[in-house]
Amino acid sequence: MNDLIDVAREGSIATIVLNRPDKLNALTKSMWRDLGDTITGLSAEDELRCIIVRGAGERAFSPGNDIAEFATERANKTQAIAYGAVMRATAEALAACRHPLVAQIHGICVGGGLEIAALCDLRICGESSRFGAPIKNLGLVMAYAEMAPLVRLVGPAVALEILLEGRIFDAAEAKDKGLVTRVVPDAEVATEARAAAERIAEGAPLAARWHRKFARRLADPRPLTPAEHDECFDCFDTEDFRTGFAAFLAKTKPTFAGR
Fold first, then answer.
1. To 10 degrees, what angle do helices 77-96 and 144-154 make?
2. Both 157 and 224 in a single domain?
3. Helices (H), 44-184
4. Are residues 75 and 23 in the same domain?
5. 8-state DSSP, 224
6. pLDDT tens digits for range 146-200
7. Residue ranges making up the domain that contains 240
């Protein structure tokens, strides 16, 4: 897209980098837009199996939106609605992505950075990482579209604790709250995130996509339809199932084609 949203590929794994290290990867409106466009483009690529999302460097995943931009992009309600629409579209792109998402979290993960991480499927951070959403100090609220992933992840009580107190807390507390999946030594974050992505990529990609879809659907209170129940058994008619079943019987490692 541009040098502020960088994409690297290695095999079936893509890594998206929030690439603004001089500002600790603080997000601008254009970065939000480009992140959404990048996710949408990668989601359409059948050969991909997993996407890692990270911030440039090891000081921060992201501290959230760049406050310096508020004077020109979020100075009033009209501007904020337009900015919020961009953020919402990106959140929807992350939620709709077909491929599993792994957040590789170094250092600070606050505000909008936390919102992005909450939309990933796995969140792996270092022991010195810090989390929070102190937007009360700006007199701002987290809009419905931004707050929904956080509430789904940790529940309304914990989400309100984070927003009402506005504290910055450590990785151990984030793990206790369910904000992160795994806490590892700082020097091992990249290695562990990559290992997690490789474990995902080795599995049947259609199964991973279905699991991601099903987990999000179960967060919807509407009753499941007969067609949705039926879809759970589509996997039995796939080449991947036949490959995996045969490999299990032969005690060999399966190589899935995604068909």
1. 40
2. no
3. 70-73, 77-96, 112-118, 144-154, 156-165, 171-177
4. yes
5. P
6. 999 999 999 999 999 999 999 999 999 999 999 999 999 999 999 999 999 999 9
7. 204-250
